[in-house]
Design brief:
With 338 residues, the chain is an alpha+beta fold. The chain has a five-stranded mixed beta sheet with strand order 3-2-1-9-10, sandwiched between helices. A five-stranded mixed beta sheet has the order 13-12-11-17-18, with helices on both faces. Strands 5-4-6 form a three-stranded antiparallel beta sheet. Helix 4 packs across helix 10, helix 5 packs across helix 6 and helix 5 runs antiparallel to helix 7.
């Protein structure tokens, strides 16, 4: 593997369902963009990647399609992922094509050998000279500042766009992990379906995401919030505007939030007694974009009776942890999957 031959052009990548973040050694997080690619259907040419492609979501003519190449945290479209990674690596290195960086990529803990190979192949095709994979919960725990190499147990809940990863970590290893295919994307879809059922109004993914950010919560809020939204009336077929409240959004998100809580409870039930005692003292750390859902920490505290804290920078936790391994080769050797 030649782990000792690392140079400053090496990168750490959080290849997420919703967003991809890139960390460069010595520079920090240099890129954070949506994992979306806009393709011309006839020629197969990439027209836009990341933020520019997200602007096109739901607004493209027939010959252009905006694709999310990752689903539930893993590669759904190998070719498009490779094109997206190539563009992000190129952006990270200011379009200097000759550089072939070594890359560490964070992947879901439940990833299969076939999926691992797909990630490695995509990165190598995109220009990486060497690829190392680490598990997302481990990277999130390191990024959140947890002492993962100590014998005490730590629990991290990483709620991403496609999956929620719950892991108990001790001695630089994952003692127990559970991955459930519930994340920010499913919450957005739940909001779309709820508004469709209740109001016969069709809204887009981007509108649903804005509703989730502004009104969504896992526990009743102290003050009532409302928001005006626009969509297409499914009965009359014309544009229409309605006002919705936080209570309605909470109702829409109830099942998704319950799935996250069940995953945490299930992990606690399967944690060895000695490590469970450590978690009672240290509590649970929340990471990932889903950790920003209003009052999720309050709801989890009520459901588990344990101290709950949110990582300082939940959105960047995984990539910061992965980036730390660029400098700490001993730690990388302990936690790398391949």
């Amino acid at each position: 593997m030649g782990l000792l031959r690392w140079f400053s052009n090496d990168l750490a990548v959080d290849l997420g369902t919703a967003n991809t973040l890139v960390y460069a050694k010595g520079k920090g997080v240099i890129l954070s963009e949506p994992s979306i690619v806009a393709i011309h259907t006839q020629s197969g040419k990439v027209l836009a990647v990341g933020r520019d492609a997200k602007e096109m979501l739901g607004r493209t003519p027939g010959n252009i399609v905006a694709i999310r190449p990752l689903k539930d945290g893993v590669i759904a479209d190998f070719e498009i992922t490779e094109k997206m990674l190539r563009e992000f690596i190129s952006k990270a290195h200011s379009r200097r094509r000759l550089l072939r960086p070594r890359v560490i990529i964070a992947v879901p803990s439940g990833i299969t050998p076939v999926e691992k190979k797909a990630v490695c192949d995509s990165a190598q095709q995109a220009g990486a000279s060497e690829v190392h994979l680490v598990e997302e919960p481990m990277a999130a725990a390191i990024g959140a500042g947890l002492a993962v190499e100590q014998p005490g147990g730590s629990m991290v809940v990483d709620i991403g766009g496609g999956t929620t990863e719950v892991a108990v970590i001790s001695l630089a290893g994952i003692v127990y992990s559970r991955s459930v295919r519930v994340g920010g994307d499913e919450m957005d879809q739940a909001i779309v379906q709820f508004i469709k059922r209740k109001y016969n109004l069709l809204i887009g993914e981007r509108t649903a995401e804005q509703i989730k950010i502004q009104l969504g919560s896992a526990y009743p809020l102290d003050e009532r919030l409302t928001m005006d939204i626009k969509g297409r009336d499914l009965v009359l077929g014309v544009p229409k505007s309605i006002t919705i409240s936080d209570d309605e959004v909470n109702e829409a998100l109830a099942d998704s939030v319950a799935s996250v809580i069940d995953a945490v409870k299930s992990a606690l039930e399967r944690t060895p007694p000695e490590l469970a005692a450590d978690i009672v003292d240290r509590g649970i750390v929340l990471a990932g974009g889903g950790a920003l859902l209003k009052r999720l920490d309050v709801r989890l505290r009520e459901e588990t009776g344990l101290p709950i804290s949110i990582a300082e920078d939940p959105l960047s936790c995984v990539v910061l942890g992965t980036g730390k391994m660029l400098d700490e080769l001993d730690l990388l050797r302990k936690v790398t999957l391949m």
